[in-house]
Write a structure and sequence with these properties.
4 helices; mainly alpha; single chain; binds zinc ion; extended; 57% helix; 8% strand; two-stranded antiparallel ribbon
């Protein structure tokens, strides 16, 4: 993908997210309710596609993250971002912005 196309794609995605944010924050209740019928399904499909691309391989490493020599251990940043945004409820006791925050909100093994 060339630089212009990448920039156009990036701009279009951000504009769509801005549009959805405006609807959520400014639209009337019937309009917001209609979002549930269309946009939630699209967003869950997008998350599923993204997460499928970042499933761990048989060695427990992300299939998409990292270079050709060394893939990143699972869960990668895509999975930790999904967990943080889809599962974790931000409260003062769980929300943190530290560099090592990812591991603190992951479910414990077992
Ligand atoms: Zn990944």
């Amino acid at each position: 993908m060339n630089e212009v196309l990448a920039s156009t794609l990036r701009k279009a995605v951000y504009e769509r997210l801005d549009y959805l944010d405006r609807l959520v924050n400014e639209a009337d209740l019937p309009s917001r309710a209609s979002l549930a019928d269309t946009e939630i399904a699209r967003l869950t499909a997008a998350w599923r596609t993204l997460l499928a691309n970042h499933e761990p391989d048989d060695r427990g490493r992300c299939r998409a993250c990292g270079g050709w020599r060394r893939r990143r251990p699972h869960p990668c940043s895509v999975w930790t971002t999904a967990h943080k945004n889809l599962i974790v409820i931000d409260t003062p006791s769980t929300f943190t912005t530290s560099r090592h925050a990812a591991a603190s909100y992951l479910p414990s093994a077992g």
